[in-house]
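Format notes (please read before filing issues)

Several people have asked whether sequences and structure tokens are stored in separate files. They are not. Every record keeps both together, in the order shown below: the sequence lines, then the token lines. Line labels are part of the format and must not be stripped during preprocessing.
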Amino acid sequence: MENQARNRKQDVRTRAATPDPYNAYCRVPGCSRPARAGTADGLDRRYCRSHYDHFQSHGSLFKGSYKAKELNPYRQAALRWILDHEDDLWVKHTLQKMSVLYSRAGAHVEAFRLRGMSPRERAWAHWARLRKHIVDPRLPVAAWLAIEMILRDDQQPDLRKEYKRVQAAKIVHRMASGSHRKWTTHYTRNNDPTRTMEYAQELHVYPRPRGRVLRHIGKDLEEACELIVEYHLASIHISKKARDKNGRYDSSPYPDRRSARKRNS
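Then the structure lines:
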């Protein structure tokens, strides 16, 4: 079995490194670059490397991610509505599902120990990281509602589920994306062995927000928020439009000087 697996991997590497002349063009209209199968860069017969990377990072071949200044008014309005309606049945239900998602995510895994894990395992590790840093469950819910609302207002939206999931997951991913460590190393100088010096070192690791990990995070969030979207999205959107009449929003995605997590680790 080991020989078969090794031979299979070698066969895939060989085919990926051999350009296929029958896949000389990317399938995106207007793109003149070859598909990855037409180069020595992979087996994808549909898209070039540039469009493939764009799809992995943004969830769409054509549309990019929404900017923070576009999303913040929607995130503020959604979170304010949730805070004002915490006694609502569907709000309680959604927050309970988020708490269950946190609790079943498993043990906390540092970002620098994610290598070798599957995308599903990395997604669970992210939920565990949110739990570790005590990220309020209302914030991921507000992020999903913000994406739902901005897609309604977008004149050229990408309404596919994958784009919606990736956009929401990118917001949630930034709430507790990395691991940070500081330590002190002691050493002595060669010219003065009796003198001990201290050297402070830091390690900052941030997982890349792309690929199937974002799809898993977005799907988890969609399932947790499906009922509040079904019963209250329209009223939340109306509330947001009413807030728009009062003037401009500040630059923070959270009202009342809230934050996603404490930056002390």
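For reference, the curators noted about this record: The mean pLDDT is 87. Residues 68-257 form one domain.
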